[in-house]
Each structure stands twice: as structure tokens, then as C-alpha cells.
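Example 3.2
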Amino acid sequence: MHPMFDDRGAHARIADWHRQAERDGAARAIRRARRAHRRHGVPGKPAGSFARRVLAALGARSLRPSAPAPGQAPKAAS
């Protein structure tokens, strides 16, 4: 093969490797960003554990009023 053609083939391969490296870097950055976003507010973190403990200590009372069963009259407010 003529040296000129061999040189052009090498340049093309190197350019392909550079493009692949850019795509890999962008994909890595996207994965890192998704992972960082998922970690925020994940159940089992100290704040979530603390909230669950407080609710359990309070008897897990709901902040929402309970809805009456179907066919039952609503309770009168005191």
C-alpha cells in the first residue's frame, strides 16, 4: 500500500477514536448527573429516618382528617 494512503487511514482512525472519547465523556457526565440527582432525598437518609421515628413516636397520626366510611355520616366538628 502506498504510504500516503496508510497515513490517511491512520488519521481517520485517530479521528474516530477522538469522537468516541468525546461521546464516552458526555455519557459519563450524564450518568454522574443522574446519580447525583437520585442521591438527593433518598429514603433511608438521616432526615428521612428522623421523620419516620417522629411519626412512629406520635403514634403515626395522620395530618389529614380521616374520611368517613361509605354510608356513614360525617363527624361533627367540636
